[in-house]
Design goal:
The protein is 54% helix and 10% strand. By secondary structure, it is an alpha+beta fold. It folds into 2 domains: 161 residues, 2-Layer Sandwich (Beta Polymerase, domain 2); 187 residues, cca-adding enzyme, domain 2 (Orthogonal Bundle). A hairpin with a 2-residue loop joins β7 and β8. α13 packs across α14, α16 packs antiparallel against α17 and α19 runs antiparallel to α20. The protein binds adenosine-5'-triphosphate and magnesium ion.
Length: 418
């Protein structure tokens, strides 16, 4: 290979547990090679296996173009993406991403003020390697020879525990500002260090995040939320002053009142724990937690002005979503879920009468209840409510009935306060 920077690691040297690679990923690579193309396992899977972790997905890189891939895999393949065209291959119930090597020739690459708007210029493996984000993500596993091809000293960085951006940080963060969020995610998830120098580059380039389409930014935020180490990522987002770019209003409220820092840290820690135990998570939950900081004072103000709690809740929620849309495009279904979770906080206050059944059977009960538990973890005044809704779930129907309709039930007039 005509590349001075290439280091090849043999199976004996890299000791990667090859048996952990999904058979379907191997099959895709073999098929591409059978058709005369180069194909490698690349990115997160190679990195994670070297670190002794279980990869989340198996990405493949090849010199076949998306059309050539489509021709080989027929109806198992769908070409996706406009900004970055690649092939999705459907095998079993998983999707494998197969990306064509990107080249360095400017060709029809679309760049606006340094930002890559579209990158569909194809090239060779060594050109592809240096267009990747971090050195640890630019490792290629050749399944035939069982060697790892390392064009950017990724193995060395993995060993020394450094997350190293390939190339000039000012250029690479402007090209694609999402790389700054990816840095925070990989640092939290993999424990790879972001050097002080790189941190300074992130701080000085962070405003470029504004240029990322709001829908992509939301997707990246959810990846961060669900990376399994969001408590750490949150601390880094704060340290690098990135939270204000994703959730400007929430960031202001945290600065004003430290209880919100504790509230979000606890929310993120709870989600990390759920993921560690293999429990399901939904982006609705953490979105509701973060936006709550702006929502709550708005809702209060509207109630004080005389609005009834339901109207105030909808108006405040509408305003919060509209503000947030300027930065992050939260899908409608998630917005609705968030509203319902907040609405349930109002319903939880009513712990008697028929309404209790409606609350218990509400489709968002689980998320709303988890949110109440979170509030009770941080603020003592919610402990009694949390206890009521916890106990009632394990009671017999008769016991529930006597609890909510019994004579001793306190039917105090409910105020608007959430
Ligand atoms: P994980 O899948 O565990 O989140 P990953 O590194 O595999 O991590 P993907 O988003 O699956 O991340 O991307 C696969 C690979 O594509 C990366 O490892 C990296 O080499 C390259 N890549 C992804 N996004 C970018 C980007 N914004 N800039 C440069 N290279 C990228
Ligand atoms: Mg991946």
């Amino acid at each position: 290979m005509l590349n001075n920077n290439l280091t090849t690691y043999t199976k004996k040297e890299h000791k990667l547990p090859l048996a952990e690679i999904h058979p379907a990923a191997k099959k895709i690579i073999e098929k591409l090679v059978d058709h005369g193309f180069e194909a490698y396992l690349v990115g997160g899977a190679v990195r994670d296996l070297l670190l002794g972790l279980h990869p989340k997905d198996f990405d493949i890189a090849t010199d076949a173009t998306p059309e050539e891939i489509k021709h080989i895999f027929k109806n198992k393949c769908r070409i996706i993406g406009r900004r970055f065209r690649l092939a999705h291959i459907y095998m079993g119930n998983a999707i494998y991403e197969v990306a064509t090597f990107r080249g360095s020739d400017p060709g029809d690459r679309v760049i606006k003020k340094g930002q890559i708007i579209r990158d569909n210029v194809f090239g060779s493996i060594d050109q592809d390697a240096i267009r990747r984000d971090f050195s640890c993500n630019a490792l290629y596993l050749d399944l035939l020879e069982e060697n790892i091809l390392d064009f950017a000293e990724g193995v060395k960085d993995l060993k020394s525990g450094e997350l190293r951006l390939i190339g000039n940080p000012n250029k690479r963060f402007v090209e694609d500002p999402v790389r700054m969020l990816r840095a925070i995610r990989f640092n939290a998830k993999l424990g790879l260090e972001i050097t002080d120098e790189l941190k300074q580059h992130i701080i000085s380039n962070r405003h470029h995040l504004h240029k990322v389409p709001a829908a992509r930014l939301f997707d990246e935020t959810v990846k961060l939320f669900h990376c399994g180490h969001m408590e750490i990522a949150f601390a880094t987002l704060r340290e690098l002053k990135m939270l204000e770019l994703l959730f400007p209003n929430a960031a202001k409220h945290i600065d004003k009142n430290p209880v919100w820092h504790e509230f979000l840290t606890t929310a993120f820690r709870n989600t990390d724990t759920r993921l560690k135990h293999g429990l399901s998570v939904t982006p609705v939950f953490l979105t509701a937690c973060v936006l709550w900081l702006e929502f709550l004072p708005l809702y209060d103000q509207l109630c004080i002005k005389g609005k009834n709690p339901h109207d105030a809740l909808h108006e405040a929620a509408g305003k919060v979503m509209a503000d947030q849309r300027q930065v992050l495009m939260i899908p409608k279904a998630i917005q609705n879920g968030v509203r319902q979770m907040w609405m349930l906080q109002l319903r939880f206050k009513k712990m008697y009468g028929k309404g209790v059944y409606g609350t218990l059977h509400h489709p968002r009960f689980r998320a709303g209840y988890d949110f109440l538990l979170l509030r009770a973890q941080v603020e003592k005044e919610f402990e009694a409510q949390a206890e009521f809704w916890t106990n009632i779930q394990s009671m017999s129907p008769e016991a529930v009935k006597s609890l909510i309709f019994g004579k001793k039930v306190k039917r105090k007039k409910l105020d608007h306060k959430l």
